[in-house]
Every structure is written in C-alpha cells, then in structure tokens.
Amino acid sequence: MTLIIWLPIVFLLGIATLGVMFAFIKVCERV
Amino acid sequence: MWILPLIVVGSAIALAIPIGYGMAWVFDGRYRAPRWLQGVETRLNTGPQDWKQYAVALMYFNVAIFIVGFAILALQDHLPLNQLKVNPDGTPKLDAMGNPVDTTLCPSTIFNTLCSFLSNTNLQHYSGEVHLSYFSQIFFICWMQFITPSIGLSALVAMIRGLRGDAHMGNFYVDLWRSVVYVFLPLSFVLAVLLIAAGMPMTLQLSVEAHPLEQPSLFQILARGPTAAIVAIKQLGTNGGGFFGANSCHPFENPNVWSNLLCCMSLILVPIAALIMFGRMLNDLRQSAVIFGVMFLLSGTTIIWAIWHDTVEPNPALTEHPQRSFTIPDSSKPVDSTRPLELPAVAGLPVDQSLGNLEGKELRFGTSAGPTWAALTTNTSNGSVNCMHDSLNPLAGLTPLTGMWLNCIWGGVGVGLINFLIYLIVGVFLSGLMVGRTPEYLGKKVEAREMKLAMLALLIHPLMILGPTGLFAALDWGTKATNNPGSHGFSEILYEFTSASANNGSGFEGLADSHGFNDASLNPSSPADFAIHWDIACGLVMLICRFIPIIAPLAIAGSLAGKKPTPFTAGTMRTDTATFGLVLLGTILLVGALLFLPAAILGPIAEHWGPMPFGN
Asked: In terms of DSSP bridges, do strands B338-343 and B324-329 run parallel, antiparallel, or are they unpaired?
C-alpha cells in the first residue's frame, strides 16, 4: 500500500467513525 | 483436571472482594490522595458532568489517544528502541538490496491495531515480537492497555452514580485518573513482580541467538523483551494483546504452571471486583449477589462444557465417520450441473483420545488448562489464549463463541457489567409487564426511552456480528481466508467478527487476516490475500461495538437519575432475589443466545455432526 495515500485515508476513516459516535450521543439525547 | 478451574475461580473470587471494596472507596472519593498527586487531581477535575458531558469527554479523550497512537505506529521506523532494525549481535539488519530494513507497518495493519487497542479488544493482525518495536510495545500497546480498561471502568462508575440517583455522574477525567493510578498501576505492579519471579522475561536487550543441543551448528533467534510489564496489565485489564504472537502459549509469555495460574486468575479478578464495587457503591450488596449468581452459573457452565467436550468426550469425527459419498452442485459448469464428492473415512485412524484433544494445547499445563482459559478469556473480553482455539473440538469451540455472544458473563472491565445491566433493564421491563407491575429498578421507573436505548445497545452486537459474517462468508474475502473448508471455515469467519464485536480479541487463527510490514518481503510469511479487507472491516466493527454500548447505557443512567424515586412498597417487584436472578438468566439466554442459534448450527454444531459437503 502506498503510504502517502493510504495513511491519511485510514486516519480519516478512524476519525470519521469516532465522529459518528458524537452523532450517536445526539441520537441518544433525542430518543 | 477439575482442580485447576476450582482454584482459579475460587482464588479470583476471594481476592476480588477486598479489591472491590477498595475500588468503591476510591471511586466514591473517600480516599486522601498523596500530597504530590493532589495538584494533578485538582487540575483534572473540570467539574461535575451530566451523562452527555461525560460521554462527550470520553469520546474526545478517545479521539486524542487515537491521534497519538496513530503517530506512534505510523512513525515506528523512525522512533527509538527499535530492535527490529538490529541483528542479535548489534549490527544493522539489511534487506535484500543492502538497505536498512523499513519496519513501517502496512496502513491497514496500523488502522486495525489502533482500533483494536483503542477499543480494549487487542485483536492482533500482526505478531508482536516480529512486527512491533520495543518503543511501540511500551508506549503504544502497554499505555493503551492501562488507559482503555480505565475508560470502561469509568463508564461503569458513572452509570452506577446515575442509577443510585446522584445529582451528577462525576468527572470523566478524575475517574480515569483514579482508575489508572489507584487501581491498575498497583495491581499490575504486584502481578508483574510475581510474573518476573515466575521466570517471565523483563528486558530491553536484543533477541538472543541460541544453539540447539541436537545440532549446535544451527542457531535460533529467540525474541524477548519487556514481557512481564505488558502481560500483567494484559490480564488485569481484560486486554488480551500479548507481547508474543503466540500469546500465553509462548514459553516466555507463560513460562510455567505457576504463571499460568496467576494469569488465568487475573483474567476475571477485576471484572468480579467491579461487581463487588457495584454493590458497595449502591450500599446494597444483595443486588451484586443476584448478578454474581447468574454470572457464576453461566461461567461455571461454560468452563465445565469446554473441559468436558475437549478433554473427556472424544471427537466424534475421529471415531464415527466412515467413507461417505455425496453429490454437490458444480459451480464451474452450467447451471444445474452436479459432481460427485467422496469424503474419506476418518473413523478408525490410530488417534489416542484418552487424554482428550491435545492438538494446539500446551502440554506443560495439563489437559484442562486450555479449555479453562478459553472459557474464562471469552467470559470476559480478555482474548488472551494459552491454547489454540482453532484446535478445540467443535462443541468445545462453541464455548468461547457463546461467551462472546452473551458478552455479559463477567465481561470486560466495566463494560461487562454495563452489558449485564442492559439485560437487567430489559428483564425488569419484560417481567414487570408480564406480572402487571410498573417496571422499575432501584426505585426508578423503566419506561419507553430507557427500553429504546437498551435495544440500541443490545442489538448493535448481533448486527455487527451476523452482517459482516454473512458478507465475508459469501465472498472470496472470507472463503479464501479460511484455513479449513466447510463448517469449520465458517466458524473461523464467525469467530473473527464475534471477537471484534465483543471486543475480545481472540481468534480461530487458522484464518488468514494479517498483513504486517508494508514492505511485504520483510514479513516471515506472505501477507494474506484479503488482509486489508479484514483489517478495515474488523477495525470498524470494534470501534462501533465499543462505543455504542457505552454511550447508550450512560444515557439510560442519566435518564433514570433524573426521575423521581418511587417508594418501595409491597407491590414493588424485587430485583434482589433468586427469582429475579432466574428472570435475568432467562432474559440473557432467550434474548442473547437465541439470536445466534442459526449461526451456531451452521458453524460448530454442523462441524460436530459433520463432515458436511458445503464450501470449497
């Protein structure tokens, strides 16, 4: 895997998934 | 055979009682911090938090440690203490072109490892002594192994405060600090010293070159490192990620019967202590007793089942199956074509099963050590192994799967009891409606909002297991990665996603799911064809199934905390009786286990009945 391409991709994938958890906190607040 | 599990469980329970009382004393803030630590604790205390502020603080902290961990793993080749770049004699290790080896990990391996250790799973799609430098082991692996169980324990403590109706749920940073400094550091120090005394290595020296006695001209490179420090917190924090790839099967990571006993006992020590802490903080140990009874019953059943089916009962595949002929669809030809399949006889092979199934087991520990550890490591969310789970007999292999499917027998540090409390809330709701009483727990009514949140927390687990398992089992991503055909191959795929979702980290490791170094030529074995797919899929499952079952229960606790307590009357359904314990057991088995019955039949149960001709 080309590091310069894939390292940012996997980093952003992880951050995005963790970001979805913030959205889930909002969902739990509204339930 | 049966003495080992009795000693392990008995000693863990005995030690957990004072530790649980101590944990309650710490988290209720009734201790007096040493003067040199008081300043730190004062600065960490950003004030009382409600459930949402607590959850947001928890998530921000996880984002921060994700970023730091990513930097450490991505820059491994440039950081110090990298024994992978050096030969045992101290000379630089060179690749085929004469350049210093590049020990940068593959990006998908970095992603999977990061998600894995962030979520307390410690699923290792790499081999520790081969792919990680001492710096990465100490400053990423070991550090994460202290932080992540502390996060789980903090979430449990916050939930307890909410359940007992406190005005706020505490402060996440203070709870995290207390957990690391006053719980895990002291316990790990004591255990690490005992493990060093047992013969476990603890060194920063390079690998050693050893010459075998049978042919002194040959040599082996024996890896070693700061093992005892990592193994202690690996066991106590229900982490499971070992220093060596073979985990506690490796003689350096588990040198003898004494270290095996210590490590096996410490698997369940803190989860049981957390249960004692729960009752102590509520000032009602009867609540803990009921939960303990249910967990003990389930745990004992899994241990007995695993030992029986792996050690006492012979494998029927080796005793019963004659040669058989089948006709199966032929996918290489036009539709509706078939071809014959001959399965040879395995019955009558000269295999002595009088000592049980010894394949993949460490004989130095005895016959029941492997199944005992397998049951306990999956009752909790530890995931360390002292035998190869892929080698367990089919019905014995059902034990670790069941433990992870239920995900609430002892469970992970903090999160195991949280999962159990979700089942408890569901059980209270169902039984309350059945007998015509208002469902309530600890004097607070359980209503529609709590049930919706509980369902979100409960159902994400089977969704993240069965969905990806079905996808990978239908595609080459899964079928080309399995080590065995048919139902055992399906079990390998099922186990991997079960382990990821339960944040366990063990595996049926015949499965080819590892890449390792980004320079594939440096890996001892070629990267698996679909390693990247496994890395990304398991990473996402681990993250999702770590945080949703933490956030939703925090919201439940926050919701219950804000309700007016209802007075205890003769009509209140009691939750501190043996009858309610049976209700809990039924809820867990019906809601939790039944969801996975079809998958169990396609996997381990079919393998037990097999061989059956499906798959390649």
From this structure: antiparallel
Residue from B159, B548, B559, B560 to probe the interface with A (highest A Cβ count within 10 Å): B548
Give the pLDDT confidence of B58-114 residue by residue, as tens digits: 999 999 999 999 999 999 999 999 988 888 888 888 888 888 888 999 999 999 999
Q: What are phi and psi of B341, to 5 degrees?
A: -135, 120
**What are the counts of helices (DSSP H) followed by strands (DSSP E) for chain B?**
23, 6
Chain A CB within 8 Å of residue B463 CB: no
Task: Give CA B576 to chain center in angstroms.
Answer: 29
ipTM surpasses 0.90: yes
Torsion of CA B250, B255, B258, B263, to 10 degrees: -40
B104 touches chain A (CB under 8 A): yes
Residue of A nearest to B107 (CA): A7
- Count H helices and E strands in chain A, helices first: 1, 0
Of the candidates B398, B404, B521, B509, the one whose C-alpha atom is nearest the C-alpha of residue B462 is B404
The two structure tokens encoding residue B421: 């409390």
The amino acid that residue B552 corresponds to is A
What's the rounded Cα separation, in Å, for the pair B476 and B493? 12
Which of A7, A9, A10 to mutate to test binding with chain B, by most B CBs within 10 Å of its CB?
A10
Burial class of residue B458 in the structure, from the number of CB atoms within 10 Å of its CB (0-12 exposed, 13-18 middle, 19+ buried):
buried
Residue of chain A minimizing CA distance to B64: A15
Tokens of B616: 């390649």
Residue B104's closest chain A neighbor by CA?
Answer: A3
Q: Which pLDDT tens digit goes with each residue over B276-308?
A: 999 999 999 999 999 999 999 999 999 999 999
List chain A residues with CB under 8 Å of B552. Answer: 24, 28
B229 Cβ contact list (under 8 Å, min separation 6): B138, B142, B188, B192, B202
Q: Are residues B115 and A14, on separate chains, in Cβ contact within 8 Å?
A: yes
Q: What is the CB neighbour count within 10 angstroms for residue B406?
A: 25
User: Cα–Cα distances in Å, from B105 out to B95, B335, B528?
Assistant: 16, 45, 14
Largest CA distance in chain B: 82
Tell me the pTM.
Answer: 0.91
Residue length, chain B? 616
DSSP B498: H
| Distance between CA atoms of residues B78 and B80, nearest Å | 7
